[in-house]
Amino acid sequence: MSEEEHYLKNELDTLITSNTSIFQFIQEGSLDGIWYWDLESREQEWMSPRFWTLLGYDPTTKNHLASEWQDLIFPEDLTATLENLNRHFEDPNHPYDQVVRYKHKDGSTVWVRCRGIAIRNEKGKPIRMLGAHTELTREKLAEKQLKKYRDHLEELIFERTEALHALAGKVLSAQEEERSRLARELHDDFTQRLVAVAIHIGNLEQSPHAFPKEIEQGLRKIKDQVVKLSTDLNAVARRLHPAILDDLGLAAAIQSECNDFSLREKILTAFEPKEIPLEIPKECALCLYRIVQEGLRNVVKHAQAKKVLIRLTGSYTDITLLIQDSGIGFDPARHTGKRGLGLSSMKERVQLIQGTLSIHAQPGQGTAIEVKIPLIRRAI
Questions:
Q1: Nearest Cα to 133, choosing from 64, 80, 69?
Q2: How far apart are CA 145 and CA 151, in angstroms?
Q3: Which CATH number is 242-380 given?
Q4: pLDDT-based confidence at residue 198 (cuts at 50, 70, 90)
Q5: Domain 21-135 part of CATH 3.30.450.20
Q6: Of 120 and 193, more confident
Q7: Pairing outcome for strands 318-325 and 367-374
């Protein structure tokens, strides 16, 4: 035996022979509340100071009071506790291990895991019982909070799913409406204009003896029709896919859109680009360009504005778009979810590239839509 082992043996011998309670020795080194129960006398119940401390009581005033612990258990838990104890007394293979709620001195609830084992005589009758109380209040509170967060998350997921389903329905309807509109526009407008050009050409072909001046005037008219037709077809193509965005960049594409909007709608539209990065991710540029288009459409449909300001500001980390009009505005609190597909599609576009969209509006004071998109993406 080593010198250290010999020393520890002597210390333990001294501890035992000095009549120091082994239970006191155990409880002083434990975070649990240790308890001992004499099942024969039912009067020598002992609980360590730790048990009373975790319930908020002074251990020096609480010691061997039999059954007092029962008064501190929630009534609905006490019934289950006594049933579990009796089953353990009857069947050694049935463990006494359960979680109960105790009443703290300040009125709060203390969650405790109770475990114990009966010591039996040679006939198998329980004569002593030894056990421990482990506090679980923090774990239970964390579990409750976790459930609250989980329920909230499930609610958000449900709402998000419902919103996505609703948006998907709107998108499909909008796509069909857009296809129908383009089909009507191509058939009723462009097809008829092409027929008119063909008629003019046919008339010239059937007039071989026409004077040169008449032929010149006819060709000029055809040329003007073709030029106008080309311009309008280019506008339709730009709505379908903005080639200018690929060729000249975001700022030039927005400037062109603003110019066309001003001429078409007779609404003064100013564009202010500032410190635009030389390289903007394609999906970011397309998102901002589409938001400008949708924002200008909303101005025509809702704002009744005479002026529009579009400001595009860049930095190393992000790019910010502001669309501000001088229109009638609205109360966002009263129009939640009622602004149609326009704002919904904007928000979806922005969220897909990890950006944020905020709307600032008041009745009679116009509307401002601000979009901020990070140029440095975080990992998902």
A1: 69
A2: 10
A3: 3.30.565.10
A4: confident
A5: yes
A6: 120
A7: antiparallel
